[in-house]
């Protein structure tokens, strides 16, 4: 995009066009006859006006240079610091429960993806867990990678069965411990209880507190877990009571100065992420700036060349006849 710092000089452009292109100039010399000159082949033709065109173009270019055209570059930010977020998602078998439509895991994936779209200035890491935990995507500003990775997650993405909440928190902390962001948070989505892994959730929570990481815990699912099972070509449904340890999730959130939420349906889960989005707003100082590239110096050079060529053609190369 081009802007003019001294745009008011452009008002002179129509005047130049009028003087050179519209107004007819009367001859200062009067001849009784120009037949002799025409007989020598010095006729007034279109080419005799070329010099004036060059002069006019040179003056217009010089006026544009005076108007200081500037090429606007993209806005830049100085010391821009967003929030670093570790998304920790339970992919254990119980997340296939169909009490959510189509199931808990699919709803969680879609809701997280919508949340990521709102966090354009934040680095995001994706950790998944079942009987163990691992980093699927390290902290990155490339949210397309995070979303693509989310699409490929299934309940078979982690081979070990179980729910290792303490391990999941620890892996998330490994992603955040070297972060220099002003705010570091973890969002833990699970439908179970800690029953696997070598790290106790209480120990992991205390470590998160020391590192200044706030943990938002989200318990998903109704009071019944309904798992579809294929048997002889038919789909059967096995139901289980309970499974979610709300007390543990509340303790994790309280220890780290976070919050605990319960999502009993997909709408509630979406609202929870919307609330977190409002709570964790990225704050920026007004240190953004725009950089401009001056084009005037190049235009001045072009204007001088056009003027010199125009004067030469008009005064020396072509003979003008009244």
Number of strand segments: 13
Shape: elongated
Oligomer: single chain
The CATH class assignment of the largest domain is: Alpha Beta
* Rg estimate, integer Å: 37 Å
Series of H and E elements: EHHHEEEHEEHHEHEEEHEHEEH
Known CATH architecture of the largest domain: 3-Layer(aba) Sandwich
Strand order of the largest sheet: 6-5-4-7-8-11
Q: Could you say what the CATH topology of the largest domain is called?
A: Rossmann fold
Number of helices: 10
User: Which superfamily, in CATH terms, is the homologous superfamily of the largest domain?
Assistant: von Willebrand factor, type A domain
Give the N-terminus to C-terminus distance in angstroms.
Answer: 46 Å
